[in-house]
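ARCHIVE CARD
SHELF: 3
SLOT: left
DATA:
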Amino acid sequence: MYYAYKYRLKPSDAHHEELDRHQDICRQLYNHTLYRLNGYQDGHGELPSMTSLWSELPDLKKWRDDISDAYSKVLQTVVERLFDNLNGLSELKQNGYGVDQLKWKPPREFRSFTYSQSGFKLDKKGGQTVLSLSKLADIPIRLHRAIPDVHKSNSSCAAHQKSPISEDDATLKQVTLKKEPIGEWFATFGVHFDRASAAGRRSSLMMSSTSFVCFLKMSSRGHRRGLVHSSKTATAPHTIRHISAGSCAKQG
């Protein structure tokens, strides 16, 4: 299972400039990669592989200094984004839709870039929580809810609230920075949850919660207190099922 957690960034004017600059670097790389892809296809009659275009990035940095300012993983995700768009067009074509070729992106149509796997972390600096982005900046972020996986990396971070899903079930995969049309920046964290482990924990939590609710109902009305307080029933699964399915239904 894959979940997205979106938070508002609180960048300064200097941060705004850097975010805009890195976004434009990624946009220009996207357009350049599309140009290289089309040129390769015209010369070879087929599309190049994504890894072959990745391999061109070091040479591209030598004659484009601005590209060297961006984190390497961010540049790789730009190439991935192009291939994702190609795959999307291919699927539409297979389903009978008329599709056009990919076009260059103007600034208004390219408003996000992604750190994948590495190059980002949540930290605590100057009394506030910041999103630390490699080769960019430490940008203040408003964390209104917890991100499960960050519990593993930095215990001092303000994001380390109690999460209903165990940190052992979650893996923080990426963060996407996006500028909305109104000019505000947001960070969306992609978190992958282990389906089997998370389902097992939720099932256990639901059983415990149901039994506790039944205990409260019975205790408040003075019914069968001894049964619930018994150490034997506290560990016997069949007794818990009896309490939650039978007694609760009767007390209704």
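SLOT: right
DATA:
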Amino acid sequence: MVQIENKTKENDTEKILALTLKLPLFVLQFEQNKFMLRSINKSASKHIIRGDIKVGRISNYNKMLKNKNYIIKTFKEYDKDILSIKDIGAILNILKIEINLPVSITRTKFLSFLLENKIVEEKIIKLPKKKMTKYLFGDVSKYELALSINPNSYISHYTAMFLHGLTDNAPKTIYTNMEQFKKSFSSSSDLVQVNIDRAFSRKMRTTNNIAKLDDFDVVLLNGKNVDRLEVIDMKIDNKTIPITSIERTLIDIVTRPNYSGGVQEILNAYREAKGRFSTGRLIATLNKFDYTYPYHQAIGFYLEKAGYEEKVLNRFDKLDKNYDFYLTYQMKEKSYSKRWKLYYPKYLD
């Protein structure tokens, strides 16, 4: 009974105050509601009051969700399948202009939305001294991902052998090459046989610059600058990737046998390459490399062992053979080819 009387008194007070201020009663109630809302919870700023109705404002997340198709369309137009965090930020800025996404959406919040909705996939690449994060949009091959680690790199060595169909073994490691900056080289002094012997009695120098991903490694080679000599485009799974040509690959694998599966794999590659490359182009490419070591002797040996015609062998046989050379490094049991002045593993006899 007391509560009813108090309520009646409150209503009467409101009516008297409304008459005094010459305001409609519902306006006074509206103003009181607003005051109470702010007093109860300062976070009431997250809502909009229209008349006497409280309407929930669309959250940033829902705003992005509502425009999900447009966001995907923008990623397609950005025309980049492998993105950095800077690319994510650039796309967010485009969307803030084009569809008026709120300024309060940060790059971090945008990325969380993209990952949660499987618009992009995060890939962590572990390098010897740091980690690298890439974001994949759409179908991305492991070769594309490997090439994204170093700009302007291309597929080479054992991986090039496989993609050219010169080996049936699918290497678990991907080999890429990024050429060094151009340098001024002084002309090297003449070779000395004792220095050749010493170099090939040791292990081949190999790089420690290896990137590790979930299911494969990437050997990041940093070869001599040759202006991407004999680097071609190859279509793999409807994607274009840069890769060394067959002629260039047949040279590279001879110069770095440890990056190519070893001498037996290289010999098999030469057998598989028969009829698929130009001998003249291979020799021209080799000359442009201007190697110090006489790798033409090793190539001639592989060609002979692979059963090439004598007219092909003669083109290499005519080249100078001023030194004894080696097919690979640190051989325990060796045989010697008089024709090619070359030491090779005895198991190839």
